[in-house]
Amino acid sequence: MKGKSTIFIGRGFEVEKAEWTIVSSGNKEKSLSNTASIKLKIKGMDETYTAAEGAGPVDALTQALIKAVRQVRPEVDEVRLISFSAFYKNGQKSLKDGAGAEVMVSVDFARSGKTFKAVELSTNILEATFCTLVRGLEALL
Q1: Which of 74, 82, 71 is nearest to 111 (CA)?
Q2: Under 8 Å CB-to-CB from 90, ≥6 apart: which residues?
Q3: Cα dihedral 111/16/42/39 (nearest 10)
Q4: For every one of its 141 residues, what pLDDT tens digit does the chain have, with 9 covering 90 and above?
């Protein structure tokens, strides 16, 4: 799964370009492995590339983004992800709606007694997750 986005992280940290790739692999003999790689171009800095593994594709994407942001904002480690949920925008959909169904991702964050909820709609759950994570970091850094 690949994605691209133009986003902003924190005060004065304009991300000019963001690309991510997620690879999930496994079989009966080997447990599923999820790796996300992120390439970010932050205004005024060289392009950076990070990769991380996670328990699932969303976790791998989260870990890679945090690792990338840590290079410019080490206080990202103070941000806590409190809850993550994803569901269809208009209630349940049938399986035939498949990839065309719009999903809403909601993430609650906390840092130093402050909380923030970020929500994103997309037909791509990973894109919605990425944008939601960025919004949370933007609000709390």
Answers
A1: 82
A2: 102
A3: 90
A4: 455 554 444 454 566 677 888 888 877 677 788 999 988 876 667 888 899 999 888 889 889 988 888 887 888 899 999 999 998 876 655 556 555 678 899 999 999 999 999 999 988 888 888 888 888 888 887
Identity of residue 136: G
* Degrees, nearest 5: CA angle 105-129-70: 135
For the entire predicted model, the pTM comes to 0.77
- Which candidate, 116, 10, 117, 129, places its Cα nearest to that of 69? 10
What are the structural domains of the chain? 2-140 (3.30.160.270)
Separation CA 52–CA 123 (nearest Å): 24
